[in-house]
Amino acid sequence: MSARRWWREPLLHFLLIGILLFPVFHWFGDVRAGDRILVTRERIDAMAEAFARTWQRAPTSQELEGLVDDYVRDVMAAREARAMGLDQDDVVIRRRLRQKLEFLAEDSVTASPPTEHQLQDWLDAHPDPFRTDPEYAFRQVFLDPLKRGDALEKDAARLLQRLQALGGDANIRNVGDSLMVPRDIERMKVGEIARVFGDRFAQQVIRLQPGSWSGPIRSEFGAHLVYLYDRRTGAVPPLGEIRPQVEREYLAARRREALDDLYRSLRQRYPVVIESEGEATLATGDGT
């Protein structure tokens, strides 16, 4: 009778339950279900593939074990740091999270390539970045200041009057002084003119009116009398010739638009209060 009462004692039941549960707690410790770190087969394969791309060979079992261990340390450290609040008010982490969010928004733009019609519309609406530089065709007669000295200006005025009378078709082969630069420039862009004659000369030539001799115009060599006979304005090449550049600019603009749209929508969800001296100002949803 006393034995039956002993088996019914609540204290005995408690002790027995504790004995049974002790190995379980000893095995699992205080790990909660949400703290488990799962290293999937897919992740291990990705680690091995990344290793192979870098080193041009498959990792050894020891190297692969090290990769997995490093990944586990990353996860453990990140979880522990968040639990300790180390991710709060950290500029580096905040900027990295912003970067990842913006990458997601930008990826939506590049998910599908633009059509030819979209690129042509973009080129028609934004031609200036793709327009070629104007080109200039001119003739020049050189006057060497080292040879002519103080007579340079007088010689230039006299020769200019003579050339103006002859016009643009004047034979200038033996006129003026020799210079290792062609007398007839069939086609040159402003930058090319500046590289050959100097920037000051180039800026004066592009201001000339075609159809008459002008000068003297100073260059890095000396003085020149110049006849501008053609000015070709910059043209926009066909899409087929500049498609990569147009697509690059088009996608860049689309990414900017996607980010603007993202932050406009986020502004509606997050009221912004900007404190100034003596008062707090509530920024509007559109960022103003």
Write up this protein:
The protein is α+β, with helices and mostly antiparallel strands and 288 residues long. The protein folds into four domains: 2-33, no CATH class; 41-98, no CATH class; 110-127 and 238-283; 133-232, Roll (Chitinase A, domain 3), CATH 3.10.50. Helix content is 55%, strand content 14%. The chain has a four-stranded antiparallel β-sheet with strand order 2-1-4-3. A hairpin with a 2-residue loop joins strand 5 (272-276) and strand 6 (279-283). It is elongated. Mean pLDDT is 82; it is low at 10-18 and 20-31.
Short description:
By secondary structure, the chain is an alpha+beta fold. It folds into 4 domains: 2-33, no CATH class; 41-98, no CATH class; 110-127 and 238-283; 133-232, Chitinase A, domain 3 (Roll), CATH 3.10.50.40.
| Strand adjacency order, main sheet | 2-1-4-3
Oligomer: single chain
Kindly state the percentage of residues in helix.
Answer: 40-55%
Beta-strand proportion: 5-15%
What global shape is seen? elongated
* Uncertain ranges: 10-18, 20-31
Structural class, by secondary structure, is alpha+beta
Name of the top-level CATH class of the largest domain: Alpha Beta
CATH architecture descriptor of the largest domain? Roll
Mean pLDDT rating: 82
| End-to-end Cα distance | 86 Å
| Rg, alpha carbons | 40 Å
**How many distinct helices?**
11
Taken in chain order, the helices and strands follow as: HHHHHHEHHEHHEEHEE
**What can be said about the biggest beta sheet?**
4 strands, antiparallel
CATH-derived topology of the largest domain: Chitinase A, domain 3
Please indicate the count of domains: 4
Number of strands: 6
